[in-house]
Each structure stands twice: as C-alpha cells, then as structure tokens.
Design brief:
2 copies of one chain form a homodimer.
Chain A (H helix, E strand, L loop, with lengths): L10 H9 L7 H23 L9 H35 L7 H18 L1 H23 L5 H26 L5 H32 L3
GO molecular function, one term (chains A, B): hydrolase activity
Protein name (chains A, B): Cyclodeaminase/cyclohydrolase family protein
Keywords (chains A, B): Coiled coil, Hydrolase
Amino acid sequence: MEKSNLRGVSCTDFVLQLSSKAPVPGGGGVAALTGALGTALGGMVCSLTAGKKKYAQYEDDIQRILQKTDELQQKLLQLIDEDAENFYPLSRAYGLPKDTEEEKKTKEETLQKCFKVAVQGPVEIMRICHEAVALEEELADKGSRLAVSDVGCGVLLLKAAMQSAWLNVVVNLNCITDQIFTEELRKELIPMMESDITICEDVYRKVLGILGE
Amino acid sequence: MEKSNLRGVSCTDFVLQLSSKAPVPGGGGVAALTGALGTALGGMVCSLTAGKKKYAQYEDDIQRILQKTDELQQKLLQLIDEDAENFYPLSRAYGLPKDTEEEKKTKEETLQKCFKVAVQGPVEIMRICHEAVALEEELADKGSRLAVSDVGCGVLLLKAAMQSAWLNVVVNLNCITDQIFTEELRKELIPMMESDITICEDVYRKVLGILGE
C-alpha cells in the first residue's frame, strides 16, 4: 500500500499541494485537518483552565476532556493520511481497461470495492468530530471564560469539518450501487450531523452572548 | 520584533502547539490557516478545470481566479505568523507594573495601543476571506463539475474562518476604549460577514443540489 505523510508536511506545503491538481490532499484530508484544529482548540481551552483555582470544581472534567481531545485530534491527524491512502486504489482502478465485456465487469467490481474503501475516511472523520462536538459543548460551561472565544472557534471548525466530510461521503455514496450499504450510512450520519450542527450553532451563539455580541 | 514561523511547522506540530497553553497559535492563527485551506480548495478546483475542453469558455476566468486564489492563500498563510507577531507586544504589556498611578496610566495606554495592533490580524483575515468567497461563488458556476464538492468544502471553511476571525476581533474590540475606532470596524465588518455567510450557505446548498442531496 502506498504510504502518505501529509500530516508531516508544513502548513504552507499542505496548502500549496492542496491548491494543485495533485490527487491528495483533497476535501477529505482538509476535513480531517480542520477537525483536528477544532478539537485542538478544545484542548487549548482545557490547558488554559487546568489548575486554575476559579475552575477547581471542574478540574476532573477538564482533565478528562483534555485526555479525550488529545486522543481525538491524534486520530484526526492520522485520518489526513488514511484518507489519502484510501484514495490511491480508487485512482488506480479508474485506469483499468474496459475494452472487453469481461474487463468492463472486472473494472466495475473493482471500482465498487474502492468506493467503499474511499468513503471510510470521511465517515470516520464525521464520527470523531461528533465526539469532539460534545466535548466543546461541555467546555462552553466548564472552560475558562478567558478562552471562551476559542470554544466558539472550535465549534465553528468542527461544524465545517463535519459538513466537508459529509460532502465527501456523498460523492462516494453516489457511486456505490449497494443500496443497503449506502442507506445504513445515511441513516447513521444524517441525523448525527443535523444534531451536531444545531449544537455547534447554539454554542457559537452562547459564546457571542458571553462576549456581549 | 519577535518573529514567528508557525506556517513552516508541520500540520501535526501546529495542532499539538495549538492544543497546549502556548500563547500562539490561537484562534486568529487557526482562522488564517482555515481561510488558506478554503482558498486553496478554490485553487484546486481551478487547477482541475484549467485546460479542459468542456470548460474552454471559462478558461480566462479560471486563470484569473487561480492567480487570485494563489495570492490570497499566500496572504492568509503569512497572517498565521503576523497574527502571532501582533500578539507578542500585548502579552508583554500585560506584565507591566501597575503599582503607582503613573504606572497604571502607562500600562493602560500601552495596552490600548497593543489591542489596536492585535485586532489587525483577524480584521485582515476577514477582508481576505471576503475576497475568496466571491471567487468560490464564481467557481460554483464555472469550475469542473467533477470538483464541485471541493467548492462546497471551500465555502464551508471560508465561512468558519471568517466567523472565527470575527470572534477574535470581538475579543479585542471589547478591550478598546476608542469608540470611533471600534465603531468603524464594526460598520465595515458586520455587514460584510453577514452577506458572505449568506453567499457561503447558498453555494453549499447549490453544491448539495448538484450532488443530488
């Protein structure tokens, strides 16, 4: 399997490669990075709250959330590269010959398998962002007020990451003929995303309110 | 002046440093990076459309947009570090003594100058994202249909970047006593942001529609 190390390149190079016609990173990798940034903002709020007398009553929660955001941001960083690695087989399958009926059949079957692999990255990004959203919601109440704007930025990024990942799920689902497979993902992801969008928007408004806007 | 090179560190290290209690990067730097990612997605759509027969009628527009997205993403990457550099004097000013009346006065005057410097980064991020939004809007019509989901991701990220920058503008405006200064920025930025949010949401819905959602 081709290995990817996009998370190890500089922010500048990531952006430059993104803007080129290179096959990766694409929307999926960007969704993963954006999710990691949103999650890390939650981690920052924990780091700035931990050990502060004023928030001593939440210390245990803050430590738990910090451990969890560390874990989720790590997974999202890995997903930048997993999403790229999941895409390579598909980009190769597009190049398969389809001159004979047999070749056509083989190509279509291979493509179908590859679409099911390619969709996994964005699906996983959505699931992890979902966990991160719940943590930021908690931080809006328990995190240091001095860092409340960072909670606001965090939910804005997580919402964008989740919706971006969803667009990349849809692109793949549109190509998958296995209706049971596509319906199961839709049933799982759409209500989850809709509920998280509402939470993110509520937290953003709450933050604006705290800032007097 | 202290120099920053956050845009040169790896995505992984950027995320790790963000989640720590290090003073930078913060919400402003993340807004700049998110804006750069959103803009670069527009550049990618141009890269994938340029030279294609099917879109020959838009070739000149695509070349113009590509040149512009390159320039804007470059500025946004620079703003990751400018925002950090603008923050250092403020973080030093917080440490000034305030034991005597004279010291108090000097500290408050210094802080006021520093807030006006610190707000510049997020303000500039909003202005540049505003330019990028107009380009993505054009790409929703003129860009390759094969990359339409990337236009959708692009506007989602630009919206999140602009709103994140706005939160960081507000945090600074709340500390600035010069009402003429704060009112002028509010008059410029709020209508711009509201109009861009509407555009981004319209483009996102349009993209979903093209994808059959």
